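ok so I'm stuck.
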Amino acid sequence: MSMSSFPYGPVDEDEAVATIHRAIDLGVDFFDTADVYGLGENEQLVGKALKGRRDEVVLATKFGNTIRDGRMGPVDGSPDYVPKACDRSLERLGVEYIDLYYLHRPDTTVPIEDTVGAMAELVAAGKVRHLGLSEASAATIRRASAVHPIAALQSEWSLFTRDLEQDVIPACREHGVGLVPFSPLGRGMLTGTITNLDQLGERDFRRTNPRFAEDNFDRNLELVGVVQEIAAAHGCTPGQVALAWLYAQGDDIVPIPGTKRRTYLEENVSSLDVTLDAGELDLLGEIQAFGARHADMSFVNRDTPERV
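replied:
not stuck anymore, here's the structure
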């Protein structure tokens, strides 16, 4: 997502492609995009970067979120929309199949059984290999799994975002659903590199995020100080500590830290070399960020209507 012009500001396409190539060379083999990232441009970018290397990677994309007049529109999980969205993604990516196809957000007007049923037909047709959900509630995960195996749930999870832990993660593990945490670096704040709101561009969407609001920003920076102290003890960066904490939560967890530069990519990969002890894990686990993770929380942990 960060490799497209929305929402994190200007990008360098050549550096983005070089970053993807470097990731593969380092052994990274899971790449995630969505049809709304850059209004379709991101899928094209990823497809371009993976040309000739498709067989080396697991490719995931998402559908369901729509764009209306340049802004996020309603979610569309209707069975008729599913194959149309998939075909458009296949064309933009320039591939014959998608390894992991996510419903980007559950449609609160369509029973999840209907959406997943249509997604399952894509598996039968050979266009998709595995199905995923994003920001689904525990109940939605259980209902979806009754229709077709769900391989992964992509939702926000980090030292700063912990709401999945009570109900959603147990539901995932009950049904063998892997966890793909997005924004594992707290939208950049857990890296310790953002110390002033002036560092964010005028179009950077984090300016509207409650955790970056002035009344919460300074208090959250104090929490980052805890991460920085542990990083100093390990001779690593705060971002590597944040990722190491997630990796320590289980073998079924595959964080997707976004970056658009090779330097940060290499730093993220090196987080696998950081091992936190029990005391450090407990200390980090006590962190509670100030402010909601979205201005509009209706897009997270979503339920769908019952099937009639």
